[in-house]
Structure prediction request, 277 residues.
Amino acid sequence: MTAALLICLKLSVVALLLAIGMLSTKKEVTYLWQRPKLLWRSLLAMYILVPLAAILFVSLLPLADGLKLAVFVLAISAGAPLLPKKLMGLGSDEYVLSLVVTASILAIVTVPLWSAALGPLFGRTSHLAPLEVALLISKSFLVPLVVGMLIRRFFPNNAEVIADKILTIAGGVLTVAAVLLLATHWKLLHTAGWSALLALAGLTLISLMIGHLMGGDEPGERTALAVSCATRHLGLAILVAAAAPGVKTAVFISAYIVSSAVVAIPYLKWQKSKGFE
Prediction:
Protein backbone atom coordinates (compact mmCIF):
# COMPACT_ATOMS: atom_id res chain seq x y z
CA MET A 1 0.00 0.00 0.00
CA THR A 2 2.72 2.45 1.03
CA ALA A 3 4.85 1.64 -2.02
CA ALA A 4 1.86 2.20 -4.33
CA LEU A 5 1.08 5.56 -2.70
CA LEU A 6 4.68 6.72 -3.08
CA ILE A 7 4.57 5.76 -6.75
CA CYS A 8 1.33 7.74 -7.17
CA LEU A 9 2.93 10.75 -5.52
CA LYS A 10 5.96 10.62 -7.81
CA LEU A 11 3.91 10.05 -10.97
CA SER A 12 1.60 12.94 -10.11
CA VAL A 13 4.65 15.18 -9.74
CA VAL A 14 5.87 14.20 -13.21
CA ALA A 15 2.40 14.80 -14.67
CA LEU A 16 2.15 18.23 -13.03
CA LEU A 17 5.50 19.30 -14.44
CA LEU A 18 4.51 18.04 -17.87
CA ALA A 19 1.40 20.23 -17.66
CA ILE A 20 3.40 23.23 -16.48
CA GLY A 21 5.70 22.79 -19.47
CA MET A 22 2.66 22.71 -21.74
CA LEU A 23 1.48 26.01 -20.27
CA SER A 24 4.83 27.74 -20.64
CA THR A 25 5.99 29.87 -23.54
CA LYS A 26 9.43 31.37 -24.06
CA LYS A 27 8.12 34.73 -22.91
CA GLU A 28 6.77 33.28 -19.66
CA VAL A 29 9.84 31.16 -18.95
CA THR A 30 12.20 34.13 -19.35
CA TYR A 31 9.99 36.62 -17.47
CA LEU A 32 12.11 36.47 -14.30
CA TRP A 33 15.40 36.30 -16.20
CA GLN A 34 14.66 39.73 -17.66
CA ARG A 35 14.00 41.22 -14.21
CA PRO A 36 17.22 40.63 -12.25
CA LYS A 37 16.15 42.45 -9.06
CA LEU A 38 12.96 40.41 -8.75
CA LEU A 39 14.87 37.24 -9.66
CA TRP A 40 17.48 37.73 -6.95
CA ARG A 41 14.88 38.66 -4.32
CA SER A 42 12.94 35.51 -5.17
CA LEU A 43 16.02 33.29 -5.05
CA LEU A 44 17.23 34.86 -1.80
CA ALA A 45 13.87 34.20 -0.15
CA MET A 46 13.48 30.61 -1.38
CA TYR A 47 17.06 29.35 -1.36
CA ILE A 48 18.64 31.20 1.58
CA LEU A 49 16.18 32.71 4.05
CA VAL A 50 13.72 29.80 4.29
CA PRO A 51 16.53 27.21 4.77
CA LEU A 52 18.01 29.47 7.48
CA ALA A 53 14.59 29.51 9.18
CA ALA A 54 14.57 25.70 9.03
CA ILE A 55 18.03 25.58 10.62
CA LEU A 56 16.74 27.79 13.42
CA PHE A 57 13.79 25.43 13.94
CA VAL A 58 16.03 22.39 14.24
CA SER A 59 18.39 24.23 16.60
CA LEU A 60 15.70 25.50 18.98
CA LEU A 61 13.08 22.74 18.98
CA PRO A 62 13.49 19.16 20.28
CA LEU A 63 12.29 17.39 17.11
CA ALA A 64 12.19 13.64 16.49
CA ASP A 65 14.68 12.26 13.96
CA GLY A 66 12.04 11.60 11.30
CA LEU A 67 10.62 15.10 11.67
CA LYS A 68 14.10 16.62 11.67
CA LEU A 69 14.87 14.89 8.39
CA ALA A 70 11.53 16.06 6.97
CA VAL A 71 12.39 19.66 7.85
CA PHE A 72 15.77 19.14 6.18
CA VAL A 73 14.15 17.83 2.99
CA LEU A 74 11.69 20.74 2.95
CA ALA A 75 14.50 23.21 3.61
CA ILE A 76 16.51 22.12 0.57
CA SER A 77 13.43 21.74 -1.66
CA ALA A 78 13.30 25.40 -2.60
CA GLY A 79 11.01 26.27 -5.44
CA ALA A 80 7.60 27.31 -6.54
CA PRO A 81 4.49 25.23 -5.84
CA LEU A 82 3.57 22.49 -8.28
CA LEU A 83 0.01 23.75 -8.49
CA PRO A 84 0.33 27.19 -10.10
CA LYS A 85 -3.45 27.28 -10.64
CA LYS A 86 -3.71 28.33 -6.99
CA LEU A 87 -1.81 31.48 -7.87
CA MET A 88 -3.37 32.27 -11.22
CA GLY A 89 -5.61 35.31 -11.26
CA LEU A 90 -3.26 37.31 -9.08
CA GLY A 91 -2.12 39.36 -12.05
CA SER A 92 1.24 37.57 -12.17
CA ASP A 93 0.75 34.43 -14.27
CA GLU A 94 4.04 34.99 -16.13
CA TYR A 95 5.89 35.38 -12.82
CA VAL A 96 4.37 32.19 -11.39
CA LEU A 97 5.23 30.05 -14.42
CA SER A 98 8.72 31.53 -14.71
CA LEU A 99 9.31 30.86 -11.02
CA VAL A 100 8.20 27.23 -11.35
CA VAL A 101 10.43 26.57 -14.37
CA THR A 102 13.44 28.46 -12.98
CA ALA A 103 13.21 26.71 -9.62
CA SER A 104 12.94 23.28 -11.24
CA ILE A 105 16.07 23.90 -13.32
CA LEU A 106 18.08 25.32 -10.41
CA ALA A 107 17.06 22.40 -8.16
CA ILE A 108 19.38 20.14 -10.17
CA VAL A 109 22.32 22.07 -8.68
CA THR A 110 20.99 23.52 -5.43
CA VAL A 111 19.52 20.37 -3.88
CA PRO A 112 22.78 18.35 -4.00
CA LEU A 113 24.72 21.38 -2.66
CA TRP A 114 22.30 21.99 0.22
CA SER A 115 22.17 18.26 0.91
CA ALA A 116 25.94 18.07 1.31
CA ALA A 117 26.14 21.27 3.38
CA LEU A 118 23.19 20.81 5.75
CA GLY A 119 22.86 17.03 5.91
CA PRO A 120 25.01 16.50 9.04
CA LEU A 121 23.21 19.29 10.91
CA PHE A 122 19.81 17.71 10.26
CA GLY A 123 20.85 14.15 11.06
CA ARG A 124 20.42 13.18 7.43
CA THR A 125 20.13 9.43 6.93
CA SER A 126 19.75 9.35 3.14
CA HIS A 127 22.72 7.78 1.38
CA LEU A 128 22.09 9.45 -1.95
CA ALA A 129 25.24 10.98 -3.40
CA PRO A 130 24.98 14.51 -4.86
CA LEU A 131 25.33 13.14 -8.39
CA GLU A 132 22.49 10.68 -7.75
CA VAL A 133 20.27 13.50 -6.48
CA ALA A 134 21.06 15.59 -9.56
CA LEU A 135 20.24 12.70 -11.88
CA LEU A 136 17.01 11.97 -9.99
CA ILE A 137 15.87 15.58 -10.29
CA SER A 138 16.90 15.80 -13.94
CA LYS A 139 14.83 12.75 -14.89
CA SER A 140 11.83 13.64 -12.75
CA PHE A 141 11.74 17.40 -13.33
CA LEU A 142 13.71 18.62 -16.31
CA VAL A 143 12.59 15.90 -18.74
CA PRO A 144 8.80 16.35 -18.25
CA LEU A 145 9.19 20.14 -18.36
CA VAL A 146 11.03 20.00 -21.68
CA VAL A 147 8.60 17.43 -23.12
CA GLY A 148 5.68 19.65 -22.08
CA MET A 149 7.23 22.67 -23.77
CA LEU A 150 7.80 20.67 -26.96
CA ILE A 151 4.14 19.59 -26.94
CA ARG A 152 3.14 23.25 -26.54
CA ARG A 153 5.34 24.21 -29.49
CA PHE A 154 4.00 21.59 -31.91
CA PHE A 155 0.38 21.52 -30.70
CA PRO A 156 -0.30 25.07 -29.46
CA ASN A 157 -4.06 24.92 -29.99
CA ASN A 158 -4.69 21.93 -27.73
CA ALA A 159 -1.86 22.21 -25.22
CA GLU A 160 -3.52 24.58 -22.74
CA VAL A 161 -6.80 22.65 -22.57
CA ILE A 162 -5.02 19.34 -22.03
CA ALA A 163 -2.62 20.88 -19.50
CA ASP A 164 -5.49 22.28 -17.47
CA LYS A 165 -7.08 18.83 -17.22
CA ILE A 166 -3.75 17.24 -16.27
CA LEU A 167 -3.24 19.84 -13.52
CA THR A 168 -6.68 19.11 -12.09
CA ILE A 169 -6.34 15.31 -12.17
CA ALA A 170 -2.70 15.10 -11.08
CA GLY A 171 -3.25 17.68 -8.34
CA GLY A 172 -6.13 15.61 -7.03
CA VAL A 173 -4.05 12.43 -7.11
CA LEU A 174 -1.21 14.16 -5.24
CA THR A 175 -3.55 15.36 -2.50
CA VAL A 176 -5.45 12.07 -2.14
CA ALA A 177 -2.24 10.01 -2.08
CA ALA A 178 -0.76 12.29 0.60
CA VAL A 179 -3.90 12.02 2.76
CA LEU A 180 -3.99 8.22 2.35
CA LEU A 181 -0.33 8.00 3.29
CA LEU A 182 -1.09 9.96 6.44
CA ALA A 183 -4.09 7.75 7.21
CA THR A 184 -2.06 4.57 6.65
CA HIS A 185 0.71 5.71 8.98
CA TRP A 186 -1.30 7.80 11.43
CA LYS A 187 0.56 6.18 14.35
CA LEU A 188 3.75 7.98 13.31
CA LEU A 189 1.99 11.33 13.63
CA HIS A 190 0.35 10.23 16.88
CA THR A 191 3.74 9.28 18.29
CA ALA A 192 5.26 12.60 17.21
CA GLY A 193 2.36 14.45 18.85
CA TRP A 194 0.94 17.90 18.28
CA SER A 195 4.41 19.42 18.51
CA ALA A 196 5.24 17.93 15.10
CA LEU A 197 2.23 19.48 13.38
CA LEU A 198 2.76 22.79 15.15
CA ALA A 199 6.40 22.79 14.04
CA LEU A 200 5.41 22.18 10.42
CA ALA A 201 2.70 24.85 10.57
CA GLY A 202 5.15 27.26 12.22
CA LEU A 203 7.71 26.70 9.48
CA THR A 204 4.99 27.33 6.90
CA LEU A 205 3.96 30.59 8.55
CA ILE A 206 7.52 31.90 8.80
CA SER A 207 8.19 30.95 5.16
CA LEU A 208 5.00 32.76 4.14
CA MET A 209 6.14 35.91 5.94
CA ILE A 210 9.59 35.75 4.32
CA GLY A 211 8.10 35.54 0.84
CA HIS A 212 5.60 38.33 1.54
CA LEU A 213 8.32 40.69 2.78
CA MET A 214 10.71 39.87 -0.07
CA GLY A 215 8.09 40.00 -2.83
CA GLY A 216 8.37 43.70 -3.55
CA ASP A 217 5.69 46.30 -4.17
CA GLU A 218 3.63 44.50 -6.84
CA PRO A 219 0.81 42.76 -4.90
CA GLY A 220 0.44 39.77 -7.23
CA GLU A 221 4.16 38.98 -7.26
CA ARG A 222 4.40 39.47 -3.49
CA THR A 223 1.55 37.04 -2.88
CA ALA A 224 2.93 34.51 -5.37
CA LEU A 225 6.38 34.53 -3.75
CA ALA A 226 4.87 34.21 -0.27
CA VAL A 227 2.89 31.10 -1.23
CA SER A 228 5.86 29.72 -3.17
CA CYS A 229 8.09 29.99 -0.11
CA ALA A 230 5.44 28.47 2.17
CA THR A 231 4.54 25.47 0.03
CA ARG A 232 8.11 24.79 -1.10
CA HIS A 233 8.64 22.39 -4.01
CA LEU A 234 6.54 19.63 -2.46
CA GLY A 235 6.99 17.31 -5.42
CA LEU A 236 10.74 17.62 -5.14
CA ALA A 237 10.53 17.03 -1.38
CA ILE A 238 8.49 13.87 -1.97
CA LEU A 239 10.99 12.55 -4.50
CA VAL A 240 13.94 13.15 -2.18
CA ALA A 241 12.06 11.77 0.82
CA ALA A 242 11.13 8.62 -1.09
CA ALA A 243 14.83 7.96 -1.62
CA ALA A 244 15.47 8.00 2.15
CA PRO A 245 15.19 4.71 4.04
CA GLY A 246 11.88 4.11 5.80
CA VAL A 247 8.59 5.93 5.41
CA LYS A 248 8.77 8.44 8.28
CA THR A 249 10.10 11.32 6.22
CA ALA A 250 7.56 10.85 3.42
CA VAL A 251 4.74 10.80 6.01
CA PHE A 252 5.91 14.07 7.55
CA ILE A 253 6.24 15.61 4.08
CA SER A 254 2.62 14.61 3.46
CA ALA A 255 1.69 16.24 6.77
CA TYR A 256 3.39 19.40 5.55
CA ILE A 257 1.17 19.37 2.45
CA VAL A 258 -1.84 19.55 4.76
CA SER A 259 -0.37 22.09 7.18
CA SER A 260 0.84 24.37 4.37
CA ALA A 261 -2.67 24.38 2.90
CA VAL A 262 -4.16 25.24 6.31
CA VAL A 263 -1.84 28.25 6.57
CA ALA A 264 -1.59 29.35 2.91
CA ILE A 265 -5.27 29.19 1.90
CA PRO A 266 -6.43 31.77 4.49
CA TYR A 267 -3.55 34.01 3.40
CA LEU A 268 -4.64 33.76 -0.23
CA LYS A 269 -8.23 34.57 0.70
CA TRP A 270 -7.05 37.54 2.75
CA GLN A 271 -5.00 38.89 -0.16
CA LYS A 272 -7.88 38.41 -2.62
CA SER A 273 -10.30 40.11 -0.23
CA LYS A 274 -8.02 43.15 -0.28
CA GLY A 275 -8.30 43.22 -4.05
CA PHE A 276 -4.50 43.44 -4.19
CA GLU A 277 -4.65 47.12 -3.45
About this structure: The mean pLDDT is 74. The chain has one domain: 2-273.
